[in-house]
Amino acid sequence: MLTALLCCNAAIAKDLKVMVVKTTPELNSSDVEKKIKGNICFTPGVKRIVTNLDTKLVTITYDAEKTDSKTLLGAFKKIGFEAAVVSDKKAEKKTSDNVAC
Description:
It is a single chain. This protein is an alpha+beta fold. The chain has one domain (about 15-90): Alpha-Beta Plaits (2-Layer Sandwich). The protein has helices spanning about 1-10, 30-40, 70-80; strands at about 15-25, 45-50, 55-65, 80-90. It has a 4-stranded antiparallel β-sheet with strand order 2-3-1-4, covered by helices on one side. The model is unreliable at about 1-10 (pLDDT under 50).
């Protein structure tokens, strides 16, 4: 029973990181927002994407065991955006796997 409990705990503990980027062209409309969310969401390891039209920033929560910032920046490039990292750090609180991006 202890082994099963430890296995479950290991499956829950993920190396989640949060990366904030500023894009060029800027995040300035709901159409751009939809394009970013609709495409970056399919990058393996991405758990959540939050866009902010006021600050023009995109916040991505991702599983660092499945992807990294270089891959995510490449995903932006594939859809016609340059992305500059504002911050990339370990997530402060756990994000549930059932949160869809």
